[in-house]
Amino acid sequence: MGRRERKKAATRQALADAALRLFLDRGFDQVSVRDIAEAADVSTTTVFKHFPSKEALLFDLDSDREAALIAAVRDRPEGMSVPRALCEHTLRMHSDGTDDPEMARFVELTESTPGLREYGRRMLMRHEAALAAAIAETTGVPADDPGCAALAHFALETVGFARGRADARRSIEAAFALLEHGWPAAGQR
Amino acid sequence: MGRRERKKAATRQALADAALRLFLDRGFDQVSVRDIAEAADVSTTTVFKHFPSKEALLFDLDSDREAALIAAVRDRPEGMSVPRALCEHTLRMHSDGTDDPEMARFVELTESTPGLREYGRRMLMRHEAALAAAIAETTGVPADDPGCAALAHFALETVGFARGRADARRSIEAAFALLEHGWPAAGQR
DNA sequence: TTGAAAAGTTGAGTCGTTGCACTTTTTTAG
DNA sequence: CTAAAAAAGTGCAACGACTCAACTTTTCAA
């Protein structure tokens, strides 16, 4: 890697670090892009050469998420259903956000700012097609099967559903119970 | 109704009309709020006294939607399941958008602009709580039952899912089939 | 060494949106 | 009925996110 790319990476990292620090300190809306640029000692325009938007400064670590999602489906234990595997994966991701206090503050920031909620949701939904393809593959149906796409969409949407509900874990489980067993018929209630 | 309110209503209508005309003509992003204000012969500030955002200029008619949604659940034929009723209602709403050519252009506009898609989705999702309550009522469970909330959320989310897919009707039906019967067990495939 | 491409930086500008001040209308008090 | 005060409408100027067109610097091959 040449000197140039190293410097570019350093600037990028400095921007992401400064942004995270300022956001956690003052809140997303109380920090302007100018502030971040100044803290990293570059001009505001330069910020947008490295990141497509103000929100993107926070979601710099987006990789691996898709891979973990696909793996949860593909490498699930023998005999476990796809919705069940996705449920457990979602619960696992969710508890990751409440263990580490550093991470907890980050999660709290993203969930309390409407703009960041939307952005996070869109980031997550970009994996819909890949997840649908993985589901189709393990169940042996055509890759564009609408049922697989629907399951993928709803499974990803579940975190958005649980957000803001009183008992998040119970909401996640209820959502996946619906996806796995369907709406209970009139007699079974 | 006094003269003042009449004038206010007239200005509001003029703004909504001018906005719709310009948006259909040039596209949402190619029209600035200043253009709309000028077309209605007011200042840009006045626009935001009547509408909370640029997007709101298009979604002026949002009422009745929630009422129709609730009615579809509450007044469904004897013996019809809740997901089935919601499926038919969703399909009915969807075909409304493709019949009338005027409406078709409107739908095409809202679906082709990312900002408008998000806004429309949020408008729709505001009905989640009311729909969940209606579902809970007809099935005789506590109003805050997470299963009902999940069904409400996913049913509303279905239009967002079908959007942008090749065969929208088939996608809607597949989504509701999943919600009604659940993910088919390994043997049934 | 040189010269052109790639990348970084900048200042000026656009667009959505909001605070502050000003004008007009409606309501209230004398 | 009139004056004052409250309320509502309107516009100018400004802020913050983001883009564009130019300019400067860095890199690297010939």
TrEMBL record, chains A, B:
InterPro entries: DNA-bd_HTH_TetR-type_CS, Homeodomain-like_sf, HTH-type_TetR-like_transc_reg, HTH_TetR, MftR_C. It holds the Pfam family TetR_N. SUPFAM superfamilies: Homeodomain-like. Residues 9-69 form the HTH tetR-type domain. The keyword Ubl conjugation does not apply. Keywords: DNA-binding, Transcription, Transcription regulation. Residues 32-51 bind DNA. PROSITE patterns: HTH_TETR_1 (PS01081), HTH_TETR_2 (PS50977). This is TetR/AcrR family transcriptional regulator.
